[in-house]
Write a structure and sequence with these properties.
The protein has two domains: 246 residues, NAD(P)-binding Rossmann-like Domain (Rossmann fold); 86 residues. The protein has twelve helices and 14 strands. The site of zinc ion has 10 residues, from helix 8.
Length: 372
């Protein structure tokens, strides 16, 4: 078989930029980026980075494409949603169509403490495309431990947040590549310096209950991808410091948290105690035998505000508030046999997802509708 004809110099306009140039373009081609979560943030950042010429991309996601994703998750099509394709695989295939020379891997995986180190250790930069705090704190721990820059991003409603974490390259760092090295004077706060504890389950709105504007997620992902490019071409001095909030509906764009230096008292980057890697914060799941259901027990056991959760679940199906629990059917979520999933949420934060025996699916449903 003959090689396909080359299509010409696709990165020409980017190489013209003095801050990239031929040297920057070569560095990008040698770089490796891990994108965790292939939803609204992950699809946009993956596409921007692939088109920019990052040589190697690894995508990790636990979920499948659904119709409600198409409003903002730019790599997917109706055919992907109809087939219920795994996001990591659908995104991988689409990116291969965009650039056939890209080295790309798609992993259908629910990150846990054991797996996360393997993915992070091979990356030069990690981009957060997650929809839940449980995995975010795990990822922050893994990136600080390994000394790999971590680009936090999140969005709900019309508000997006982003923050660049540059962990100092420590002699104890555990990564395999040394392409990006961060001096102590350049190190930034980590996620736990700014938000010491994850929000308790059910306490904050999620995109699935409060909605989200696709333009906002695209803006946050574009910022994450820009920061990744700066780091990969060696322009770490241009990295934005602090936590940035953006609300294009209100016309607001501001640095809302200006802590500039890592907090020496931070358990993660200050004391190098990686509690989430040691298993803290992980929701436990158990298949309820004979009941076609999975129980999800979040690590934080704070009592839920069932009235506000009931109001948030209202648009997603028929939900009834009973003593100590909320029960109902999720209209848009199908179970293993194609029937709608039934969700019961207890005041202690536990959920029972009926209609599936897949623990990853139940964990995702809990994160989405109850919040993790
Ligand atoms: Zn920290």
């Amino acid at each position: 078989m003959s090689e396909p004809a080359p299509i010409g110099d696709r990165h020409h306009r980017q190489r013209l930029l003095p801050m990239i140039g031929d040297d920057g373009q070569r560095r990008l081609a040698e770089s490796s980026v891990l994108i965790v979560g292939c939803g609204a943030l992950g699809t946009v950042s993956a596409e921007l980075l692939a088109r920019a010429g990052v040589g190697s991309l690894s995508l990790v996601d636990r979920d499948v494409v659904e119709a409600t994703n198409l409003q903002r998750q730019t790599l997917y099509t109706e055919a992907d949603a109809k087939a219920g394709r795994a996001k990591a695989e659908a995104a991988r295939d689409r990116l291969r169509e965009i650039d056939s020379s890209l080295r790309i891997r798609g992993w259908v995986d629910d990150l846990d403490a054991e797996g996360v180190r393997g993915y992070v250790g091979e990356a030069d930069v990690v981009v957060d495309g997650l929809d839940n705090f449980e995995t975010r704190y795990l990822l922050n721990d893994a990136c600080v431990e390994a000394g790999v820059p971590y680009l936090y991003g999140g969005a709900v409603g019309t508000v997006g947040l982003s923050m660049t974490v540059l962990p100092a390259t420590d002699s104890r760092a555990t990564r395999t590549s040394d392409r990006v090295r961060i001096g102590t004077e350049q190190a930034t706060p980590c996620l736990r310096c700014v938000f010491p504890e994850p929000p308790t389950a059910g306490s904050s709105p999620t995109c699935d209950t409060a909605g989200v504007l696709g333009m906002v997620t695209a803006m946050v992902a574009a910022r994450q991808a820009t920061e990744a490019i700066k780091i990969l071409v060696g322009a770490t001095n241009r990295v934005e410091r602090g936590l940035w909030s953006i609300d294009p509906w209100q016309g607001r764009f501001a640095c809302v948290e200006t802590i500039d230096r890592p907090d020496p008292a931070c358990p993660c980057c200050g004391r190098r105690r990686f509690e989430f890697l040691e298993g803290r914060g992980r929701a436990e799941t158990a298949v309820l035998c004979g009941r076609n259901a999975v129980q999800v027990r979040p690590a934080s056991r704070a009592a839920l505000d069932l009235d506000s959760l009931h109001a948030r679940l209202g648009p997603h199906g028929e939900f009834h508030r009973e003593s100590g629990l909320i029960r109902g059917v999720l209209r848009a979520e199908c179970g293993d046999e194609g029937d709608p999933l039934e969700l019961t949420v207890f005041i202690d934060g536990r959920s029972i997802v009926r209609g599936t025996v897949e623990t990853e699916r139940a964990r995702a449903i809990h994160a989405r509708y109850v919040g993790a």
